[in-house]
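Re: the multi-chain job from yesterday

Posting the exact lines I submitted so nobody has to dig through the queue logs.
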Amino acid sequence: MSRTRVAALAVAVASVPLLLAGCGIQETDPIEAGGPATVEAFYNRDDDMMLFFRTPDGGLNPVLRTVRPSAGFGGDYVESDPGTTPGPPSTEKTVLALLAGPREEDRAAGLTTALPPARPGTTVTVKTTPGGTVTTGLPFPLKALNTTARRQLTCTIAYSQAADGQAVVKLTGQDGASSSDTCGLAP
Amino acid sequence: MPRSRGITDRRSRIRAFGLRTRLLAAFLLVAAVSAGTTSALTYREARNALLKTTQDTAVATFREQVQQTGFGLPIQGEGLEEVLRDLARKGKPRPWVVFAEYGSLRASSGENPVSTVITPQLRRAAQANPYGGFERVVKDGVPYLTIAMPTVFRTGPYSTLPSGLVLYAVMRMTDEQINVDALLTAARDGALPGLAVALVPGLIAARSVLRPVRELRRAASSMGSGRLDTRIAVRGNDELADLAATFNESASHLEDSVNELREAEARARRFASDVSHELRTPLAGMLAVTEVLDEDADHLDADTARAVRLVSAETGKLAVLVEDLMEISRFDARAAELNADEVDVAEAIRKTLQNRHWHEDDRVHAELPAGIRARLDPRRFDVVIANLVGNALRHGGAPVTVGLRTGERPKGTPVLITEVTDRGPGIRPESIPYIFDRFYKADAARTRSAGSGLGLAITQENVRLHGGTIRAGNRPDGGAVFTVEIPLDTGEATA
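And the result, structure tokens for all chains:
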């Protein structure tokens, strides 16, 4: 080996630690660090409906709608809907609320719906089979709905049926077409 | 002298890339690599630990604080900034700026609702997976820690659902940068003295190698100049000590061989001297007898007379040869003494020529400037001149010229220069190196000559005894020239 090559090798060896270290504080890629933060959203299954609307980036955000104040809360008396019964709001009502579209405060946060607006007087039928599948009859043809609309329906129905939203939802349209899916939003 | 300059050149080149330089370089390199690696690794670990502590604390704190907040869904723009400002105040280890993103809502605890530091990658990661995350970003030379914290809420006792709200915290890492810079300075300041310290063992190691090598060189050159009893002290038990021991052994063998050779040579010379001594006495008798026979040769018959004269002449030659042999033996035994006296050189030469009856011989010319005085042994100088002139008359051609002048050697020593030139055919160039050898015959065909064959050898020894030199050569216009240079010891005193 020539003297020059030895010198080059020496320089390379000597510069290895420098390369190893880098200097100062370096940039990093995004690094995962623990789970998400669990915040208090004041959700009460007995009093609140949970609807899913579309965010500007194409995702789904849950929105809570209080159907009646909880009993004894602050002592305020609000006239309750005489047609309601105790327990969680029914899935039919929840789906109708979803079809009614986002309210003012939802739209303020940029939330929209992909579903067609419901004509007054439309009805939704919900049937629960023992296997855990929820079959829902819709007042419009299913093939008119895009993926986001179907996911809005699926998640709203699933979380209306169970707190963990794990139910299998079967959507049936007026055209007789049907599709089955789960919500899958839970972490 | 090109040879000695070559040696010095080589030595200085050896010094430039010498053992010391190489050993020091190797030590420094090893020290640099180890100190550099150690401090670099230490620095890296310390820095990473420092940053990790900061990041973990910040992420954990941020999550904890976010978990203490509550939001109605959908989240409303009003009042959101209040919550964010409250979060920002509680930042740990330092206050941070908190940003919130929900649907199309953008809010922050600072002046701008949207951060310029948070990267799209972090945003995408936070929206795709409901996991907390962080990213270090350097913007305009300032390092920032950005934390993304997606939020979920409970839908049941065991289930959670992403709320769609993602909170971001942005914290400047200036304190960390100061600490990391301090670490870097400490690592560097730790490594540099290490290098300096490494010089000391490097120098010691170089010394321990170089000292024996230097001694070896000194011993070798001392042996080269003839001191065969030179030995090296063998220290320690390493390879260099082995080398020194081997050197001593070889030197001892060499000394033995040389001593043997010298003894053999001395014996041979003693033998020659003894032989010539032993021959002298019978020769003296023989000379006396041949002189008588010579005188009576005229009365003998022609053949006997010729034989008697031949025996007489050869006996005379033999006597001269024995005398010359004894003279040479004295030189060999270093028994020749210089009886120097300050003489007028021109006068001395003239006397020599007169004694040989050459002053009236027109074959011999003398060009002798007066007034040159030198310290010479008159007898030996006489032998030198007589031998050279006799040699020129015998082998060269007339006229023979004896020249005398003073000159200077290249070093500036004044010398007496005596030149004996002839007009003969000159000396054959291949013979010049051997012309002063004993019994050397310049003309191979002439096996017998009038001289003993020792004349020039004796001349050279005599000149050497004066501290001078003798050279043989040819003149450009033909003829041999013998030049004798003898230092003028008294030249300065008389001038």
